[in-house]
Design a protein that fits this description.
The chain is built from eight helices and four strands. It has 200 residues and is mainly alpha-helical. It has a domain of 133 residues: Phosphofructokinase domain (Rossmann fold, 3-Layer(aba) Sandwich).
């Protein structure tokens, strides 16, 4: 999960106790990832959990032009970026690395009470819209309120994770690394918005 945006890996990483979270929105330096592993080993920890989004991008990849970045992705032979990150860690260290790709199984599981209430709320709001003859909208939780949002506002747009978002900052205060320590200004070329052509 997390091909273009990192919300699922971010939440899964924080909830699952990850020590490093790598997201498409925050280019990582593999040296920083290894430093985190080294630091944990020195403190006596026998493992490090890295949650890597499918679209996790290194600082080097972020410096490429969009065309070259897409070409590099097309040339990738591993089934997931997690394997590339694991291989790089193995090549630079003597650590044992194991990769687990949960894929779509992470969307399963028994719903908690919050999930059940939320599903009921969005179902009711969708039904209310249909009864009112309103179509072409999605139902969302916005600031703890269930609202209808026109598809014209959200279609074709990405809601990316801001590196300055509250959850990212809280995760950093908890000691979670995003591999960006000391990295300035790197941006995933895929996430750079297209320039709108001037209207004639």
């Amino acid at each position: 999960m997390g091909h273009k945006v990192g919300w699922i890996p971010l939440y899964a990483g924080v909830a699952g106790g990850a020590d490093v979270i790598l997201l498409p929105e925050i280019p990582y330096d593999i040296n920083n990832v290894i430093k985190t592993i080294d630091k944990r080993n020195e403190s006596g920890s026998r493992f490090t959990i890295i949650a890597a989004a499918e679209g996790a991008i290194s600082v080097e990849e972020a410096s490429l032009k969009k065309k070259h970045y897409k070409q590099r992705i097309a040339e990738r032979t591993s089934p997931s970026v997690a394997y590339d990150i694991a291989a790089e860690i193995i090549n630079r260290t003597n650590y044992e690395v194991r990769v687990a790709v949960p894929g779509h199984t992470q969307r399963g599981g028994t719903p908690c009470a919050y999930d059940r209430v939320f599903a009921s709320q969005v179902g009711v709001e969708a039904a209310r819209g249909i009864l009112a003859g309103e179509y072409g909208f999605m139902v969302a939780d916005k600031n703890r309120e269930i609202v209808r949002v026109p598809l014209s506002i959200v279609a074709g747009r990405l809601k990316t994770v801001s590196p300055d978002s509250q959850l990212v900052q809280q995760a950093k205060l908890m000691g979670i690394s995003f591999g960006d320590e000391g990295v300035e200004g790197a941006v995933n070329p895929i996430l750079v918005p297209k320039k709108e052509k001037p209207k004639k």
